[in-house]
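Format notes (please read before filing issues)

Several people have asked whether sequences and structure tokens are stored in separate files. They are not. Every record keeps both together, in the order shown below: the sequence lines, then the token lines. Line labels are part of the format and must not be stripped during preprocessing.
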Amino acid sequence: MLPYPEIDPVAFSIGPAKVHWYGLAYLTGLAFAWWLAVRRSARPDSPVSREQVDDLIFYGALGVVLGGRFGYALFYGTEQWMADPTWLLRVWQGGMSFHGGFLGVLLAMFLYARRHRIVFGSLMDFVAPLVPVGLGLGRLGNFIGQELWGRAADVPWAMVFPKDPLQLARHPSQLYQFALEGVVLFIILILYSARPRPAWAVSGVFSLSYGCLRFFSEFFREPDAHLGFQAFGWVTRGQILCLPMIGLGLFLLWYAHRQGAASPAKDARP
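Then the structure lines:
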């Protein structure tokens, strides 16, 4: 068993204000997304110009935060939300959902595409490779904050999280998700998008890959205490939410390759 490397979840304080590592993970993820978007905007097939990148990241950040919070309330905290509607605004108490953030980014990018007259599918293909690093850093934030830990385990690298009331040796599932949703997914998308693809193909690979990787990692993650297992004694809420993403990814890949050649990036409508 490995000792848990206790790290203060507060990175630093400025007077009464405390800056948590989890918040810094979000900011670093957005900064990396901006840097990568600037680099990818120089490609001849890019639907986004350098001048449009800053606006793109702003839209994306709003989609992540608002969608992530509403998604958590809807998918994981409905009873708490109904009992206390103001809880939705207390984001400092934690509670963000990837699947909610995914829907939030979809809506934000749809509005961005309409504003800048960009084909929606081409825009989503541009955005997809920008996401995994932020996801991975968020999982490191979960690890430092001792949240979303894994199921009880007897593997040599199991850890006892000090905040765990049962003090069980557990899978460090946050690190598994960092490796899968952050590193592996990033490599898949960077390699796949290295050359032009039909519109929606890169998005399809993102949705399919994330859905499969998250579904697998959920086997090592302790389900939320107030939800438990949702079906068959082993299916979690996270796995259920991954199924539509897997289905969407398969559909988008079929649709993209059925269309054939890559679609134009700019909307030709008057």
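For reference, the curators noted about this record: Strands lie at 10-14, 17-20, 159-160, 169-170. Residues 19-259 form one domain.
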